[in-house]
Amino acid sequence: MQNLEFVNVSGPEPWKNKEAKKFVRSHAMKDFRRRQRERNPKGKVKKNSQSGEGSVPTANKKVKPKAGPELPPEASMENALLPVRPTSMELTQVHPAAQGRGWNSGSSSPSYTIHDQMPFGRRIPSPISLIPKISSPISFNPRMYSGLPSPSPSDSSDLSTSRSLKRMSDTPDYQSQADFDLGVSTAAFAVLDDVHAQFDRMTSKFFHSVHSYLAFIHRPRFEKRVADSKIKADAEMSVLLLSMKLVAEPINYAQSGADPRQNSVYIAAKHFHRLVNKSKGPSLDLIQSGILLCLYEHNAAIGDVAYKTLADCANMGQRIGLNASNFKMDFGVPDMAAYQEEFRRTYWALISMDCIVTLHDEKRERAMLMPIPTLDDILPSVKEDYWTDASLNDEYLSLAYYQPVSSQLPQWAHSFARQAQSARLMCMVQDLLRYRFEDDPAGMRTKILKVDQLLQENMVKSLFDCNGNCTQHCGPISMAISASYLLHEFQLLATMTSSDPEDLEALARSKLAIVKLIQMMVDILGMFPITHLPELSPSALYCPYMAAKLSLQLDRVNGVKAPPTLAPANFQLMLQSLRQFSTLWRCTDYYVKDIVRAQSRALPMPMSVA
C-alpha cells in the first residue's frame, strides 16, 4: 500500500504522512477482514480433513446478529470520530429555499432523497472497484462544436493512474455512507499523490489564478474543512480537491503533446463527481467542483462535454435552491454568513460559466441554462478581505456590503461583484442573439441599442475604477467586451446587405463600435503581462480572437479599396497573444487556426466549420 504524499507542509492543520498512512491502512484492514469473513463465515466450522465429515455449529459457536459493518480494532480507533449511522435513515426533502423561490417561479423544485445508509439488502457501489472502468478513454460521442473534434480513443493512457487504480481495484462494496466517503477520499488522495500534488502549492495557485475571476470558494472555510477531512473522510471535499488541481496547475499541452481527456486527475474527478452525486445527492461542494470541471473542459476544448457538465450543475443548483436573493436561510452549518455568501457566489459562478460556455455556441442551437438575473438579485459581497481573512468574523460581513444588481458599485468594489453585473449583460446579449433580426427589425434595433448603452456604461465604470490596470478587473472587463463583440457582430451581419435607412444607421453604429473595441484590445495587449496567463478568464482568451475575426469581417464589408481595419503589426499581436495562450489552454489553438484560415481566404470562417 502506497504512502500518500499529498501533504500540507505548513498552514492550518497540515496533513501528515503518518495520518495519510493511517487513513489508507484503515481501509486496507477493512478489506482484509472482509476477505477473512468471506473465506470462513461466522457460524460455520471448517471441514475436518482427517474424518472427512462436515461438522455443525455447536452451542458455543452461535452466530451473533450483526448490527452493522464490522470494523477491525485499528479502523475503530482511527475512525473514532466517524459516527455510527442508523440502519436506515432516509430523508426526502425539498430545500426550503427552493420552495416558491426556484428559478421557475411557476413550478416547485423536485424533491430528492439522501440515503444516509442504504436499506437492508442493498449496498452502495464501491467507488474504488469502479475506477478501472474510467481509466480507459472516455466514451463520449458528442456533437462537434466550434470546430473541436469529438474525443477519440488514445493509443496511450496515463500509466501512473492505471497503476494506482489497479492497486485499489478489488475492494468491498460499502454498506454505510461513512465507508463510502472513506473509499472515495482514499482513491482521490491516491490519484493526487501519483501526480505529486502539494496542498499548499495547489491552493496558492488556485486562489491567485482561477479565484481572481471565479471567487466562489470561501478560503478560511475551505481550509478548515480540508483539515477536518483527515479526521472524518469527506467525499465531496475530495472531488473538489481533484477539480481544483485540474484548473490551478494546468499542463502545458503544447510541450507535452498530452491529450487533456487522458489527464489522470480529470478522469478521476469526472468519475467521482457523478458517483458521489448519485450516492449522496446534490450539494454545494459538488456544484463547485462541477463548475471547475466545466472550466477545465471548456478551456481544454473537450467537445460538448462542458455544456453537459454545466447542465448537471444547474440541475443540482435548482434542487438545493441556489439563488442570488437576499432571502435569509438557516443552513444549519457553522459560519452561517460565510456559507450564505458562498451559496450566493456559487450561483453567480454558474451564471458566469453559462456565459462562457455559450461563447462557442455560434449557431445558437442551445438554450441558456441559467435565467437572466433580475435587477433585485443580490451581488456577491463588494468587500473581499472577509473572503480570504480567517480572523474576520461573520459580523464583519454586514448588510452594507450586499448590493443589488442595479446598484452603482463603489470604486473599491471587488472584481467578482463587477463580473456579476457584466455576466447579467452577457446573458441579455445571448438572449437577443437567439431571435431572428428580420422578424422585427425595428424592435431588435431598439433592444440592441439599449443593451449597448448598458454595456458601454459598464465598461467605462470598470476601466475608470481599475486606474489603467486592466488585470485588476480582467473578468468583468473581458466579459463586457466579449458581449459587445457578439452584439455588434450580430447587428453587422443582419444589416450589411440592407438598404433601409435605419438599418444603415445601425450598421454604421456597429462598425464604429467594433473599431473602438478592436483598438481597446490592441491597447490592453500592448501593456498586458503575458506571464500572468493562469489569471486570464476564458472571456479574456476570447477577446483577441473576436478582435482579429471582426477586423477581417469589417475589411470584407468596407471593400478592398479601404485600408485594413487592423494594421498588420496589430493583427500579428492578436495571433501572437493567442499562440501564447494556447500553451496552456487548447481552445485558443482552435482560435488561431480559424483566424489563419479566414485570413488565407480573405473572409472570416465560423468556428464550427472544420
UniProtKB/TrEMBL annotation:
InterPro entries reported for this sequence: Pancreatic_hormone-like_CS, TF_fung, XnlR_reg_dom
Bias kind Low complexity: ranges: 146-163
Key words, A-Z: Metal-binding, Nucleus, Secreted, Transcription, Transcription regulation
Ranges of compositional bias, category Basic residues: 23-47
PROSITE patterns recorded: PANCREATIC_HORMONE_1 (PS00265)
Domain called Xylanolytic transcriptional activator regulatory: residue spans: 205-358
GO cellular component: extracellular region; nucleus
Protein name: Putative fungal-specific transcription factor
Organism: Venturia nashicola
